[in-house]
Amino acid sequence: MPKIVMYSTQVCPYCQMAERLLRQRGVQDIEKILIDKEPARREEMMTRTGRRTVPQIYIDERHIGGYDDLSALDRAGGLVPLLQAA
After folding, report:
1. What is the pLDDT of residues 63-77, one digit of tens each?
2. What's the total number of domains in the chain?
3. What's the rounded Cα separation, in Å, for the pair 19 and 16?
4. Which end of the chain is more exposed for a tag (fewer CB within 10 A), N or C?
5. Start and end of every Glutaredoxin domain (predicted)?
6. Running DSSP on this structure, what letter comes out for residue 36?
7. 56-59 and 4-8: which strand pairing?
């Protein structure tokens, strides 16, 4: 299973939906970086992704994007192969 990293906040409904989708696809471990608890990590997220909103999801070193991007990837049949690649 590849490494999953998700920049998130504690109260973000899209973050919760992204986590739920990943878990439904068999992901057990998600490294969550809570930018509301660690404000310095917000700047890291923005530099790394070029985006300001959460969630921002990485599968290994590949930036997937936010929940809408993750969901579209899943609907297109691309998520499961990515999760099985490693």
Report:
1. 999 999 999 999 999
2. 1
3. 5
4. C
5. 4-64
6. T
7. antiparallel
